[in-house]
Amino acid sequence: MNALETKSLTLAYGDQPVIENLDHCFPKGKISVLIGSNGSGKSTLLRSLARLLKPRKGSVILDGKAITTLSTKAVARKLAILPQSPECPEGLTVLQLVKQGRYPYQNWMRQWSEEDERAVKRALKITNLEGFEERTVDSLSGGQRQRVWIAMVLAQETDTILLDEPTTYLDLSHQLDILDLLYELNRSEGRTIIMVLHDLNLSARYADNMVVVHDKTVYAHGKPESIITPELVKRVFGIECLVMKDPVYGKPLCIPCGKGRRAEDENLRAVDTQ
Ligand code: ADP
């Protein structure tokens, strides 16, 4: 079963194609992580999956229907997206922002309800933001602010959550907090998570499915163990690396050694060939 599917999908800006003729399935209930070099088209692909970017050709299929045939609210009840570096109007409180996540459920007949109240409270609890409701978002630290955005996305209560680099600008501890939270949501509630991450090793730790965007397509996809190889890293990122088994999680651990600190690199290669 797939959460999202692309069929002969071509995405472009002007006459520059970014993704060409892509057929790909994002499995339901799994964590898929998009990786690839800067400018390879990860954000573009993610935005198209959320209907924020219209395909030049082909389509994105959500629950068996072309996403372009669904209304904005219908899409927003099925999937939520947290774009890269979202901007929050000055002075907005945490509660006000998280409440925005409930807009797909409101219309002129149905105003704010107990169900909305429950969803917002729950989102604040899961993200550890109880007690922060009246703080303004701009007064928070980077890690707290990112949690507020995630709370907004969670309040939307969708089966699928898309996130574009949700850990950017966070220190390692806060990166792990966010990734653990998403992992927990996936494992305990079966939410489908599709996200762009930069850190290859964290991607390998958290992904069920890695999706490598390269050469205007999904160049490779599968379990981290089969994706992270020195050949792929060389091809996609243009660097030499060693790939070892992470001693704690057993996932592939990529140790770049083709750039910088070259003398030590030679030592590493020597170790590798022993
Ligand atoms: P990634 O997320 O992998 O870094 P992007 O999807 O942001 O890559 O960008 C893919 C390509 O599309 C890049 O060459 C980028 O310059 C270009 N691009 C991205 N957004 C726009 C835009 N709004 N207008 C024109 N070109 C864009």
From TrEMBL:
Q: Which Pfam families has this protein been placed in?
A: ABC_tran
Gene3D superfamilies given in the database record: P-loop containing nucleotide triphosphate hydrolases
Q: What is one term from the GO cellular component aspect held by the record?
A: plasma membrane
Principal cellular location given in the protein's record: membrane
**PROSITE patterns reported in the protein's UniProt record:** ABC_TRANSPORTER_1, ABC_TRANSPORTER_2
Occurrences of domain ABC transporter (ranges): 4-240
Protein name, UniProt field: Iron complex transport system ATP-binding protein
SUPFAM superfamilies recorded for this chain?
P-loop containing nucleoside triphosphate hydrolases
Provide the membrane topology annotation: Peripheral membrane protein
Species for this entry: Planifilum fulgidum
Record keywords: ATP-binding, Cell membrane, Ion transport, Iron, Iron transport, Membrane, Nucleotide-binding, Transport
Locations listed in the record: Cell membrane
Gene Ontology molecular function terms on file: ATP binding; ATP hydrolysis activity
Q: Which GO terms describe its biological process?
A: iron ion transport
